[in-house]
Design a protein that fits this description.
It is built from 22 helices and 5 strands. With 487 residues, the protein is mostly helical.
Length: 487
């Protein structure tokens, strides 16, 4: 048996701090720590106070519980049990490092502003104790300070950003997961069950359990299934919510159970001749990367519009309208189907996300931050960068944003992308008996058709809470008040 290497000070332990990289394969921080030849102390800290209002929401906490359970089992199987601590990372990391006599802490670099603040303060505190903090790229394809315009500035438009990423040669090949890890003697660890991450009084997670398998093994199964059955048709089918046409990898990518580099290289290796589907999938990975880089360069992205003029947008206050949107009771079927899918499964189809977001910020003229907050609590893939960048994109106030005056018509969107009404029937069953010609606008259906389908508008299904034409006109009028400054 080989004895672990010892540092100059006699230490034979290195601390590995997991964050949004809950996996063993393609983990640069893990690879670097193991490469030192010392014993490994793997640690996860639940630091809600540092994250503040961006602490994980309910759906994310459900996922986190199961992901940590899977990671802990994988580490224990390899010889290095995971230490769980709840509290301030600024206190727990130095305490654990000193207890283990570790002189190095390795961690994945984070784009979230609160995590970056923690890292800066922690690096100084550890340095005072003779401990070095090493950050590695575990959640990004490229270093945010590497992908720059020719003038040296950060990209604000996606297409040239993606070209620069492709020109950079794509990500490095992924690293293999270690087979064995020499683990340090673990100090006391919290019990995962004691953290209360799962629903306690009301079990609302049944749909999540039926839909997802959190953890690295579940991520790899989802990836293999997508490559085998979904990638070839991805470009044509990813906009159709009534079928499984997307990868559904977003929560696995958010929690780092799967690295973007692994997904990239697996797709390229598996799909040399799959043309448009492969190209579109890689561009979607780069859209996610673009969002991360935006957050890196614009720490206020979750709270403030990138286009300053939108700070003066005359948003409405309408708690009843917001509640109807949240519950999927707007009376607009494609919107209600999306919001109910979100509540049931913790996820929503990408095309429908744009439709429901546009409905909120334009037809209802409610703040994009209201939608961002609801998604944060209900999405299993609630990612600060993607959530913030995407809401700003729909609201017309972000980088490379859709113009505010481009208002999605939810009826036309439903008829185009859910032509047979399968998606609406699945999540709005009270409309299931209505024919495809009317299912996306039941208020236009003849009374006989409604009666035959067992629908009484205003009783079994609500009438629209806003006239779509009037809502669009109101949104454009509001936009006109800031047009001069926003142009």
């Amino acid at each position: 048996m080989t004895r672990p290497a010892t540092g100059a000070d006699g230490s034979d332990t290195v601390l590995l701090w997991f964050r949004h990289d809950l996996r063993l394969a393609d983990h640069a921080a893990l690879h670097a720590a193991i490469g030192l030849g010392r014993r490994l102390l793997p640690v996860f800290i639940l630091d809600d106070a540092a994250a503040g209002r961006w602490a994980p929401g309910g759906a994310s906490r459900w996922w986190l519980h199961h992901s940590l359970h899977a990671l802990s089992a994988a580490l224990a199987e390899r010889g290095a049990p995971l230490v769980l601590r709840r509290g301030a990372a600024l206190e727990e990391i130095p305490r654990l490092a000193k207890a283990a006599r570790a002189t190095e802490v390795h961690v994945g670099a984070a784009a979230e502003p609160h995590a970056r603040r923690t890292d800066r303060t922690l690096a100084d505190a550890l340095r005072d104790d003779g401990i070095a903090l090493h950050r590695h790229r575990t959640t990004m394809l490229f270093n945010p300070d590497r992908i720059r315009t020719q003038s040296g500035t950060a990209y604000g438009v996606y297409t040239p950003f993606s070209r620069a990423c492709f020109a950079a040669g794509g990500p490095k090949p992924p690293l293999d997961a270690p087979v064995k890890i020499a683990g340090a003697s673990p100090p006391g660890s919290d019990r995962l069950d004691a953290w209360g991450l799962l629903p306690e009084t009301l079990d609302w997670a049944g749909g999540l359990r039926a839909t997802w398998t959190p953890g690295e093994a579940g991520a790899m199964r989802r990836l293999r299934d997508f490559l085998e059955h979904g990638l070839a048709s991805y470009d044509a089918q990813r906009n159709l919510p009534g079928i499984e046409g997307t990868s559904m990898l977003s929560p696995h990518l958010h929690f780092g159970e799967l690295s973007s580099a692994t997904a990239w290289h697996a797709a390229v290796t598996d799909a040399q001749n799959r043309g448009k589907g492969l190209e579109t999938f890689l561009r979607e990975l780069l859209w996610r990367e673009f969002s991360i880089h935006l957050l890196w360069h614009h720490p206020d992205l979750p709270d403030k519009p990138l286009r300053p003029a939108f700070a003066g947008m005359p948003w409405r206050q309408d708690r009843h309208g917001l509640a109807a949107w949240q519950r999927g009771r707007t009376g607009v079927p494609i919107v209600d189907a999306g919001m109910r899918q979100l509540w049931r499964t913790g996820w929503m189809h990408n095309r429908v996300r744009m439709v429901v977001a546009s409905f909120l910020v334009k037809h209802l003229l409610l703040r994009w931050q209201d939608g961002e907050n609801w998604f944060w609590d209900t999405l299993v893939d609630a990612d600060l960068a993607a959530n913030s960048a995407s809401w700003q994109w729909v609201a017309g106030c972000g980088a490379d944003a859709a113009p505010y005056f481009r208002v999605f018509n939810p009826v036309l969107q439903g008829r185009k992308f859910d032509a047979d009404g399968a998606y609406v029937r699945r999540y709005v069953p009270e409309l299931a008996g209505l024919d495809a010609a009317h299912i996306h606008a039941p208020w236009e259906a003849p009374e006989a058709a409604l009666r035959q389908a067992g629908i009484v508008l205003g009783q079994t299904y609500p009438r629209p809470i806003v006239d779509l034409a009037e809502g669009r006109s109101r949104a454009l009028a509001a936009y006109a008040t800031i047009t001069g400054a926003a142009a």
